[in-house]
User: Which sequence fits this backbone?
């Protein structure tokens, strides 16, 4: 059975999708962009953007009763691969080194609202 996960602590969906879906103990989190849910405004600069995206993901995980330790897969989309090192350091700071998820990072030509980063995740209940 599928359960839609939604929280006001992460940006509302800007299209026909859910923040996340929980199905058979697996949480599928939609790609998060650097929108501050309190203001609805974009944050700018790869450092601030990466922190905001990770905070948005964390809010959705929390709503589902999970943490970053439950994440098994991350997909990272960057507008500029030159931002990789900065993003990677910030991304890693939110995770437990003993439970890093599988991941890919790809450069894309454009992201929603012309942001620099978008991250989606898949997590599993213990």
Assistant:
């Amino acid at each position: 059975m599928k359960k839609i996960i939604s929280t006001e602590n992460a940006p509302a969906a800007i299209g026909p999708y859910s923040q996340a879906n929980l199905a058979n103990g697996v949480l599928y989190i939609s790609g998060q962009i650097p929108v501050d849910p309190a203001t609805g405004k974009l944050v700018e600069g790869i450092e601030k953007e990466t922190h905001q995206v990770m905070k948005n993901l964390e809010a959705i995980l929390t709503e589902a009763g999970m943490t970053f330790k439950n994440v098994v897969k991350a997909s990272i989309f960057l507008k500029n691969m030159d931002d990789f090192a900065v993003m990677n350091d910030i991304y890693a700071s939110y995770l437990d080194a003993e439970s890093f998820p599988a991941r890919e990072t790809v450069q894309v030509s454009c992201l929603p609202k012309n942001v620099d980063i978008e991250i989606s995740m898949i997590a599993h209940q213990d």
The chain has a mean pLDDT of 97. Helices lie at 46-63, 84-93.
